[in-house]
Each structure stands twice: as structure tokens, then as C-alpha cells.
Amino acid sequence: MTIARLTATCIALFSACTLSHAALTITVTDVGGEAVFSGTGAINLTGLTPGATGAANGYIFSGVGEANFNIASPGSAQTLRIYSGGSAGGVFGDASPVQLTTNTGDLLLLGSPGTIGLLDSYSSNDPITIDATAASFDGMLLTPGDYTWTLPSDTITLSIVPEPSTYAALAGLGILGLATWQRKRRA
Q: How open is the CA angle 94-96-99, to the nearest 5 degrees?
């Protein structure tokens, strides 16, 4: 395991601990320029209205004024069931669709306004694992932060975390500011 992957795993675990109220927490981390999607949990479908089925195609998308997130296996359409009755997590970027390069986890669609899509065979509270990669974190123009889809009986949280070096740079600026402040205070 590379140091970057280990760091991403630690950040994902920390995020999962701090966001423990969510039944499903998905963390998107910048690892060497790639977007790494990871998460586990389950979704309680009680109170949601099942709708039509459709195909998911392995894209990640967040458009202007939209809050769409679609994880499926690249290159193969999978049938999902759309559920409505929740509220959307908000706009988390403004990118064009980005093709996933890998996905060994489950299919998931988080849509606007408050719709979700799961494999047609999904049963309420079945375990869900998210493990996917997209080639470009920066190309997706994601906005760091936490975005929560509120369902009648559950929540889904999408946590977007920049590359760990970004935090190191911010910490460095904070230390520099503190040192400058103390110097001025002594003078």
C-alpha cells in the first residue's frame, strides 16, 4: 500500500468517524491527482417511493445547479431502480461528466431533487460498498465539504476531501501567521 493510499484510507476513516450519523458515508479524496471514492454503509428505503428503472453507465457528474453523483462499473450499463422522497445534498462542483477508471464496489446514484438509484435487486439495509477511481480530481472541479442527502429514514453523506498536501500547506500558513502575530506582539 502506497503512502498516498494509506493517507487516503486514514482520512476516509476519520471522516467516517466524524460523520457517523450518516447511514452511508462516501469520501472522495484526491490521491496523486486521482479521485478515490470510498465508503460503506446501508440505506433504509422506508418512506421512499420506488420509481422507474434505468441504466447507470459509470460516470461521475456534478453540473451547474445539479447535484448528481453516479457510480457504476465503467463500460457496462447496470439496471438501477430510482427512488424519490428525499432531499438533495446540494451542488458539489460544476464539472462535465467524468468517466470512472475503476469500480469494484456497488452501484449508486445520488440525484437532484432528492432521488437515489440503487441496483434493482437492492433490499433495504443491505450493505453497500463504494470503491472507485476517476482519473482526475481537479478536472471534476469538486468543492470540498460535506453534502448530505436526507431520506425519510436515513441519510447519505458525500464528503469531498482535497489532497493531504493542501492541508499541510494551510497548516504551514497558519503557523506562519501565528509566528508573525507573536513577533508583532513582542515588538
A: 125
Residue 113 near residue 87, CB atoms below 8 Å: yes
Q: Which domain holds residue 114?
A: 3-186
Distances, alpha carbon 39 to alpha carbons 23, 63, 79, 113, in Å: 10, 22, 21, 22
- Distance (Å, rounded) from C-alpha 142 to C-alpha 6? 22
In angstroms, rounded to a whole number, what is the distance separating the alpha carbons of residues 3 and 60?
26
Most confident range (mean pLDDT) of 13-17, 21-25, 59-63, 128-132 is 128-132
19 Cβ partners below 8 Å, 6+ apart? 25, 146, 157, 159
What's the confidence (pLDDT) of residue 62?
Answer: 55
Count of domains for the chain? 1
How far is the C-alpha of 64 from the C-alpha of 43, rounded, in Å?
27
Q: Looking at the predicted structure, is the pLDDT value of residue 17 above 70?
A: no
Provide the percentage of residues in the chain whose pLDDT is more than 90.
18
Q: Would you state the cell numbers that stand for residue 42, as one nine-digit string? A: 446501508
Chain-centre distance for alpha carbon 140: 12
